[in-house]
Write a structure and sequence with these properties.
alpha+beta; Glutaredoxin; 6 helices; globular
Length: 306
């Protein structure tokens, strides 16, 4: 594999956070970051460790894009096609927005000069277009975390071979230890612990309206305990489309949650899912740096049909 600058080849004494997480059996469910909007900026060169923040762009334009994204809590991701599948011509940008109705919105543009990116600020306030296919984003941000590149790039290659127009590599999406990570947006669905065959299967099933629990980290419109509840229902009753279930009630007493999940496919069924939240022991959760932290775990303990 040809290495991009900033990615060091694996060595026998290196610590890899994704290997450690797999050995521990860190649970995936309930680990997707909350978010309803994403800004994508195509950058074909090497990515700084801090992504968009580290780009040497015209300062006023950069500040305007950042402020507009921050105002709606949109995540800014740098994107590029996988190596060997390079687009010619102007670079692209996009604003992707999740809507609970399923009528997700997208707006795309191009940029040649830094100043062209100012159009992103206007797009964040515009309606956007519905009916476009989702974007498949594979985290391959090696300068942020080695595992994201080592595990992400083979996944990006496999998905690009199947879905060349939908797939982009992207900067950090969160959860390095679950690499390879895939975000399908603006659907707002995170998948993790993927290898190439699993990624192809998960994404093709997703596009066919069948989301499986096996590699699901969560839906980004839900909070962690709610994500875990929906994943538990999918694990118990089988795959379903993105909007087949809705969280209709949430209550909490201490570390215990009761999440009501309502299904919309016939026969419509409502489930009460109990979720327990607790902290794991402090561990190294990223490849870079020796610091440890304690992750929250959200465990579904029971499912009861109402």
């Amino acid at each position: 594999m040809t290495e991009r600058p900033g990615l060091r080849p694996p060595g026998p004494d290196r610590f890899f956070c994704s290997d450690a997480a797999r050995e521990r059996g860190d649970p995936l469910a309930g680990t997707a970051p909350h978010g309803l909007a994403w800004v994508l900026v195509e950058h074909r060169g090497g990515w700084p460790a801090n992504g968009f923040d580290g780009l040497a762009l015209e300062p006023a334009t950069k500040a305007r894009v950042f402020a507009a994204a921050q105002a709606v809590r949109a995540r800014i991701l740098l994107i590029r096609r996988h190596a060997g599948r390079r687009d010619e011509g102007p670079r692209r940008w996009a604003v992707l927005r999740y809507e609970g109705s399923g009528a997700h919105r997208q707006q795309w543009g191009t940029w040649s000069r830094d100043e062209d990116l100012a159009a992103i600020a206007a797009a964040l306030g515009a309606p956007g277009e519905t009916g476009l296919p989702p974007v498949v984003l594979v985290c391959a941000h090696g300068r942020h975390d080695t595992c994201c590149a080592v595990r992400g790039r083979p996944v990006a290659r496999a998905l690009t071979e199947r879905l060349p127009d939908l797939v982009w590599e992207c900067t950090h999406v969160g959860g390095d230890r679950f690499a390879a990570n895939v975000l399908v947006a603006p659907d707002g669905v995170y998948y993790g612990n993927l290898d190439a065959p699993a990624a192809v299967s998960a994404v093709e099933e997703h596009l066919a309206g069948r989301i499986h629990a096996a590699h699901l980290r969560g839906y980004t419109d839900l909070f962690p305990a709610q994500q875990a509840a929906v994943a538990a229902v999918l694990a118990r009753f089988g795959p379903a489309a993105r909007h087949a279930y809705t969280v209709t009630a949430t209550s909490r007493v201490g570390d215990h949650w009761q999440i009501r999940v309502t299904g919309h496919r016939p026969p419509a069924t409502t489930y009460d899912v109990e979720v327990r939240t607790h902290r794991a022991p402090p561990r190294r959760l990223t490849c870079h740096g020796p610091a440890t932290s304690s992750a929250l775990i959200h465990e579904a303990t029971s499912i009861r049909a109402v």
